[in-house]
Amino acid sequence: MYRGLEDRPERVVWVVASTVETLLALRLGVHLLNAPEIPPVQLLNQITDPLVAPFTQGLLQGGAQQTLAINTYALQPGSLLAMMVFWLLGWGTAIVVGLATSSREATH
């Protein structure tokens, strides 16, 4: 059953959550591949730094961001944690918005 226009706010939440997840996944991939700091990578880092910062503050040791490095590959646990938290926030928000905007038909 297609709900029509009443699910539009829920779709907006999913689009925003998916966009954030995609940006964080790109950041993770760029850092895993140890991509050079070219302008698109710098822009991606500038956009995602505020999203990842709350999750790296607790992971800081000696003033440097914690990474797990093997040869040239670097895994940032803060990025993974941010992806998990923002996905859960998007999922929870979509449920709440869906419940708040759904019209319930009275059954007799």
| Low-pLDDT sequence parts | 60-64
The H/E string reads HHEEH
Tell me the distance between the termini: 20 Å
The rounded Rg comes to 18 Å
Considering DSSP H and I runs of 4 or more, what fraction of the residues is helical?
Answer: 55-70%
Please report the number of helical segments.
3
Oligomer: single chain
Q: Output mean pLDDT.
A: 80
Number-wise, the strands total 2
Q: Approximately what portion of the residues adopt beta-strand conformation? A: 5-15%
**Overall number of domains:** 1
Largest β sheet strand count, sense and barrel closure: 2 strands, antiparallel
Overall geometry comes to elongated
Biggest sheet, spatial arrangement of strands: 1-2
**Which structural class do the helices and strands define?**
mainly alpha
Brief overview:
By secondary structure, the chain is mainly alpha-helical. The model is unreliable at 60-64 (pLDDT under 50). 63% of the residues lie in helices and 6% in strands.
